Each structure stands twice: as structure tokens, then as C-alpha cells.
């Protein structure tokens, strides 16, 4: 652990510190041979994740980062050298709120004169697809925040998050389901050749943030595209079957059947459907390669097969 309280070490403020991405940032910085002070922001400093971080040396600050709370955000960012920001669309499903909060956090960082703002963005699918897929709000909103950050004049790096490996383990409509003969099927509305930048987020996302901080290759204005590896859905299913010893096949299903299988309200099911179609047609990162972003990492990332081996599949493949 190299989390320090020494005031000569850079102070990194981590938004979403109790979550997948923010927690991974703390993990990666604590693995570094450079020392960092870390201030983690959460709405609840008493929850077990927050307590564990405090025990590891993270200074926990209780704050709700909403648009009405801009003064509290500025206070939380005070004296920071580096800020890491992630917004959580899935908690409220309101793109206007996500964009307003993201912009507010950029303004707060600018007001206190931050040295480096690291943002967890995503592509604007409506722009990349030239309007064909307008409903993927959790991408489009983050794309709008990225644009605002780039225009703001603050030192800004966009560390885009890849496709969470855990999605195929936990999301209804995206995990294998058992069929009558006791085998399994993973059914999606895209072809098995669809390529995804898969990442074991808690283990590896922060490595790329550490790279953005420590590697001269990734200064302000740059973009880092994260993934443990880029792999087709078909290969993911073959490897899952091989490692777990279960018979699992891939099936391409209709858009309507997929939307029903998600169990989500129509608006959200449409959002998930369009995101998959976009990944198939345009590529998750709009055709950009992740190889350069992996070049200066401090340690290897986990592959999909590493993730499969380190995960208990008994609740999915019963
Ligand atoms: N699933 C995927 O494949 C995928 C891929 C790329 C990007 N993403 C994006 O990842 C984002 C979620 O990131 P995650 O997985 O790290 O989320 P997470 O594990 O659910 O954690 C969310 C974090 O945000 C904090 N937070 C949320 N609202 C807050 C507020 N108003 N004030 C202060 N803190 C707040 C939470 O803190 P407390 O609860 O402790 O207050 C928590 O630490 C989503 O926007 C999603 O679109 C997902």
C-alpha cells in the first residue's frame, strides 16, 4: 500500500470511490511505487466499502454530488492535484441529470484550479451512428460531458470504460439461460462476431487511470480506451463453455425477443438493444483500437478467460 498522508504526495480525489471504477482507481494507485494521498467521495461514509477504504488510508468525505450541491463539490475538490470522475446513469436513468452533474463537476474542478481531470467517458452513439441509434443515453450523455470537458480548458483526459465482463454474469437478457435439455443458451440480437472491449472493471479499470497519471504518453487532451482484451461474443461463449464444462450455445434472436428477455421497461430495453446494434455495426470505441492504451500499463490485465476462472458461475450455470 502506498496511500500516504504525507502532504508532499499528490492529492487524488476519487468520485464514486465505493463503486467499481472508483474502487479500482484506489486499488491501482495503492499498487503504485509512487505515493498518493487519496480523498474518496461517497454519500455514506459508514457503509462497509467506505469503512474498508478508510482503514486502508483513504480520506473519506461525505457529499452528494448533485447539481444543487456545486459548492460542496468545489469544497470536496479543494487542494486536489488530480480528480477522477465517474457518473452513474443507471442509478436514476435520467440523461439530463447525468449531463448536468458531469458539467457541474467539471466547473467545480475548473473553479479550484485542478491539475488533471480524469473523466470516465463513453462515445456519443447518436453522433457516431449519424443518428441511426439515438436512444443510447448512457453513452450519448457521457459523450456530451466529454465535449464540455474538452472545451472547458481544464487539463482533461478521457479514460473510456470498456464493456464490463460481469455483464454476462449478472444482467438479465445478457447471461446464459438454461433450456429444457439442461444445456444453456446465450441469446442476443447481434452476430457472434461482434467484438467487445471486455474488462474486469474492479481489477483493471484503475490501471488505465494510473497510466493516464503516470505515463507521459497520456497527457491532458488524450484519450485512453480500456479493455482487458478485445474479444468476440462467440469466442467468449466458447471459452465460457470450455472452462466451466457446460454446454452453452450462442443464438441470434430478434430485437423484440431480446427486449422482452431483458425484463426492462421498453425505453430502457430499447437503449440496451441499440447499444448492442451499435457495437456490432460501428464498434464499441467507434472503430478505434485499444492497443495503444494498453502499452504502458503497470501490470497485465485480466482476459475474459481469467475473469471466467476467477468467478463463481454456480448461480448462472446451475
Ligand atoms: N456496465 C458496463 O458495461 C459499463 C461500461 C462502461 C461504462 N459504464 C458506466 O459506469 C457507470 C457506473 O460506474 P460504476 O460501475 O463504478 O458504478 P457503481 O459501482 O454502481 O458505483 C457508483 C458510485 O458512484 C457514487 N455516486 C453515485 N451517485 C452519487 C452522487 N450523487 N454523489 C456522490 N456519489 C455518487 C456511488 O457512491 P455512494 O453510493 O457510496 O454514495 C458509488 O461509489 C455508469 O454510468 C455506466 O454507464 C458501465
From TrEMBL:
A Pfam cross-reference name: NmrA
Please name the SUPFAM superfamilies in this protein's record: NAD(P)-binding Rossmann-fold domains
Domain NmrA-like positions: 11-307
Q: Which domain of life is it from?
A: Eukaryota
Q: Which InterPro entries match?
A: NAD(P)-bd_dom_sf, NmrA-like, NmrA-like_oxidored
Which family is it part of? Belongs to the NmrA-type oxidoreductase family.
Q: Could you tell me which Gene3D superfamilies the record lists for this protein?
A: NAD(P)-binding Rossmann-like Domain, UDP-galactose 4-epimerase, domain 1
A single GO cellular-component term on record: nucleus
PANTHER family with a match to the protein in the record? NITROGEN METABOLITE REPRESSION PROTEIN NMRA FAMILY MEMBER, NMRA-LIKE DOMAIN-CONTAINING PROTEIN
- GO molecular function term, any single one: oxidoreductase activity
Keywords from the named record: NADP, Oxidoreductase
Q: What is this protein called?
A: NAD(P)-binding protein
Source species: Mycena albidolilacea
Amino acid at each position: 500500500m502506498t496511500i500516504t498522508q504525507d502532504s508532499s504526495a499528490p492529492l487524488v480525489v476519487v468520485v464514486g470511490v465505493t463503486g467499481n471504477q472508483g474502487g479500482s482507481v484506489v486499488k491501482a494507485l495503492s499498487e503504485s511505487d509512487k505515493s498518493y494521498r487519496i480523498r474518496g467521495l461517497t454519500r455514506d461514509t459508514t457503509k462497509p466499502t467506505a469503512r474498508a477504504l478508510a482503514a486502508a488510508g483513504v480520506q473519506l468525505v461525505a457529499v452528494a454530488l448533485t447539481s444543487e450541491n456545486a459548492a460542496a463539490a468545489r469544497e470536496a475538490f479543494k487542494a486536489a492535484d488530480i480528480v477522477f470522475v465517474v457518473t452513474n446513469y443507471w442509478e436514476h436513468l435520467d440523461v439530463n441529470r447525468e449531463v448536468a452533474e458531469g458539467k457541474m463537476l467539471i466547473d467545480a474542478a475548473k473553479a479550484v484550479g485542478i491539475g488533471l481531470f480524469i473523466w470516465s467517458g463513453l462515445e456519443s452513439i447518436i453522433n457516431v451512428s449519424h443518428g441511426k441509434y439515438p436512444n443510447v443515453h448512457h453513452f450519448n450523455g457521457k459523450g456530451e460531458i466529454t465535449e464540455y470537458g474538452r472545451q472547458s480548458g481544464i487539463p482533461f483526459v478521457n479514460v473510456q470504460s470498456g464493456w464490463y465482463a460481469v455483464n454476462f454474469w449478472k444482467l438479465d437478457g445478457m447471461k446464459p439461460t438454461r433450456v429444457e435439455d439442461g444445456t444453456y443458451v446465450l441469446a442476443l440480437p447481434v452476430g457472434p462476431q461482434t467484438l467487445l472491449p471486455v474488462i474486469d472493471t474492479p481489477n483493471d479499470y484503475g490501471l488505465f487511470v494510473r497510466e493516464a497519471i503516470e505515463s507521459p504518453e497520456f497527457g491532458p487532451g488524450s484519450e485512453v480506451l480500456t479493455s482487458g482484451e478485445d474479444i468476440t461474443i462467440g469466442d467468449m461463449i466458447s471459452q465460457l463453455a470450455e472452462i466451466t464444462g457446460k454446454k452453452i450455445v450462442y443464438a441470434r434472436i430478434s430485437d423484440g425477443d431480446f427486449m422482452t428477455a431483458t425484463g426492462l421497461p421498453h425505453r430502457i430495453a430499447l437503449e440496451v438493444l441499440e447499444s448492442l446494434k451499435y457495437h456490432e455495426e460501428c464498434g464499441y470505441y467507434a472503430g478505434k483500437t485499444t492497443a495503444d492504451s494498453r502499452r504502458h500499463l503497470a501490470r497485465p490485465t485480466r482476459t475474459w478467460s481469467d475473469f471466467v476462472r476467477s468467478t463463481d458461475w454456480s448461480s448462472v450455470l446451475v
